[in-house]
Amino acid sequence: MDAFFATVEQASKPSLRGKAVIVGGLGPRGVVATASYEARVFGVHSAMPMAQARRLAPNAAYLVPRFALYRSISEQVMGLLRDLSPLVEPLSLDEAFVDLEAGGTAWDERSARLAGAKLRADIRAVTGLTGSVGLAASKMLAKIASEQAKPDGLVLIEPGTERALLGPLPVRTLPGVGPATGDHLRRAGIHTVDELAEAGEDELVRLLGRAHGHALYAMALARDERPVVAERETKSVSVEDTYDVDIHDRVRVGAEVQRLADRCVRRLRGAGLSGRTIVLKVRRYDFSTLTRSETLRGPTDDPAVVREAAARLLESVDTTGGVRLLGVGVSGLADYTQEDLFAQAAGAREDALDEEPEAAPAEERQTATERRWPAGHDVRHAAYGHGWVQGSGLGRVTVRFETPGSEPGRVRTFRIDDPDLEPAEPLPLVARRPGESERAEAGGAGSAGP
DNA sequence: TCTGGGGTCCTTCCACCT
DNA sequence: TCTGAGGTGGAAGGACCC
Question: How many domains does chain A have?
């Protein structure tokens, strides 16, 4: 999908179409999750600090992500992919590999192009959004082709042309070559994929280590035999929070770790999992990050056990100077627990989790009324109907009244405690016609969160 | 300028065992 | 009895991806 989060927001908000839209964390330490193509013209891109984005594109629309909505649209698209083949490997909410051969698509250029074109048309019909398709003989090449196809295109790499196509490209084009590896190679005088291949396997292993060196050499020769894997087991579950202001108070740090442990266990249980290794992550005031971990005798999903382990791990960490991020994770996962066998926790197994619904820390410092109006979220007004929050502050909330199918709408401002105004569910991006398929129904606003 | 959140995989080091 | 090799598991850190 093209600039997925930003495109969804433009589709649901007519006044933002053709405009610079930036989705991400809006706090003082937020970063850009997705920038619309209009915003990229100003130099804004993913992972950029939000403060920098605001300087580059001061007039862009800034919105917080609505993951529940993105997830529901993602499910619609993944459904279309599974219509093509049983072998679908999702990479993220907006990207997946599909093994067309396993789905019965004939192994020739024309059939592949037809399948890709039909998919793009289906995605547009079902979601109203554009998607790009890369067709090639391997996952690496399909990925590169899809990058070249963006936005709203289809690129096919013909068998036999792979090395000629890859050769002149910068090494950073290859998946797995990030800033650090890119720098490393540049210092060794390697800039293009051709130069990577010329360097030879031994040299790459010497430079980058065994696994990375072998893998990169194979990719430079356009060799990639990795199969499309439909089911991937989860290996770890973790939660983390970056705080708007560094935390210095050791007691508060301890309390935050306990909250994170509870949140992590809630996620763990939600997935029907338990785990043996508890990991504490601390990012200090100077951005140095350290982790401490402890492996239990058996897997647990007991909040008390995870809390205790996290607290023990925290004891070995110096937090003077302040912490900007805390995280708690569980790995070594299993789908059973051994509490009964090993009695990790003395005393009764308590389920304090359900009793204390907790708020996200970024929201914690806001008042209850302010918290109801995050920028970009949907609302309904008793008199004016459906709209979305354009901004709020100083006791006021500004709402633009429009829907995915309407013309750009008008803006009105209300008091944040206006009784006629309430949060609303997102509307479907594509109007449903009578008798439309189950999938469009299931993927619509119905399953999206508040 | 000042760096999110949720993951995966790899490397290095160390302890322990055979 | 001492020493070394090699495997394994855990801990910690780093790179990368979206």
Answer: 4
